[in-house]
């Protein structure tokens, strides 16, 4: 039986893109963006944890397989597509992901339907910085940046880049000053995150909440799931999206 069998499959089209989505749960909305190489069982299970915590979870499916364990050569097939696809960028610096407009539209749609103070956005690894691009839109009230790994940290400049153009970075800073913090989660010695946490601390000050775990693991919420990381994310989403609780 598919891990997604209890999830409602849909699709969202906006800004020249259309992607499938999977939805489950009740309560404030949270958009969970999967990592490479796809919408793996670990990502689906994390989404299910958030459903159990009282959230409506929407998981877009951007690339790779859905719910199945990745095949041995999955990453080898997915990475080249990500390099040449117009939806994403892997190596360019100072550039917001092209799919940002689609994600902002999805967050507005979910917020308009569910109401409340806003929605959460959880990005991981390849999508780690997408939550920053999304919070330019005021519908996003709880952005979570988990082990951001794009652009690929080859060289000092790419290692420090947070995947935003200059205008979007200013918009993120404005939102943080207005009271919307950003949660960041990573393993302290994870090379793939480069020096992005330092960049975000310099840009956002105390508005960037860092959770750094001992070790050199990578996938804090999924394959190398750390209970402290999950607890921090759930607590942040509850604080931001369920203020009455």
- Share in helix: 25-40%
Kindly estimate the percentage of residues that lie in beta strands according to DSSP: 15-25%
CATH architecture: 3-Layer(aba) Sandwich
The number of distinct structural domains comes to 1
Structural class: alpha/beta
The order of strands across the largest sheet is 1-2-4-3-5-6-7-8
The global form is: globular
Counting H and I runs of at least 4 residues, what is the number of helices?
8
Task: List low-confidence stretches.
Answer: none
CATH topology term: Rossmann fold
H-E string: EEEHEHHEHEHHEHEH
Question: Short summary of the structure?
Answer:
The chain contains eight helices and eight strands; from the N terminus they run βββαβααβαβααβαβα. With 245 residues, it is α/β, with parallel strands linked by helices.
Keywords for this entry:
globular, alpha/beta, 8-stranded mixed sheet, Dienelactn_hydro, hydrolase activity, AB_hydrolase_fold, Rossmann fold, Dienelactone hydrolase, hydrolase, 245 residues, single chain
């Amino acid at each position: 039986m598919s891990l997604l069998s209890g999830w409602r499959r849909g699709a969202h089209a906006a800004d020249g893109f259309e992607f499938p989505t999977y939805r489950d749960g009740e309560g404030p909305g949270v958009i969970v963006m999967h990592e490479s190489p796809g919408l793996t069982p670990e990502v689906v299970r994390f989404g299910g944890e958030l459903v159990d915590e009282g959230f409506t979870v929407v998981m877009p499916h951007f690339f790779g397989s859905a719910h199945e364990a990745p095949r041995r050569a999955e990453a080898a097939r997915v990475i080249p597509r990500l390099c040449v696809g117009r939806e994403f960028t892997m190596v360019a610096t100072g550039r917001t992901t092209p799919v940002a407009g689609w994600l902002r539209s999805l967050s507005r749609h979910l917020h308009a339907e569910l109401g409340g103070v806003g929605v959460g956005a959880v990005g991981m690894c390849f999508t780690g910085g997408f939550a920053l691009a999304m919070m330019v839109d005021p519908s996003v009230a709880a952005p979570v940046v988990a082990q951001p790994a794009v652009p690929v940290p080859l060289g000092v400049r790419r290692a420090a880049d947070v995947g935003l153009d200059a205008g979007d970075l200013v918009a993120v800073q404005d939102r943080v000053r207005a009271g919307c913090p950003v949660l960041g989660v990573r393993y302290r010695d994870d090379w793939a995150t480069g020096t992005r946490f330092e960049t975000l601390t310099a840009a956002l000050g105390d508005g960037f909440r860092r959770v750094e775990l001992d070790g050199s693991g990578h996938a804090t919420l999924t394959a190398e799931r750390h209970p402290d990381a999950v607890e921090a994310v759930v607590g942040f989403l509850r604080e931001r999206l369920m203020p009455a609780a």
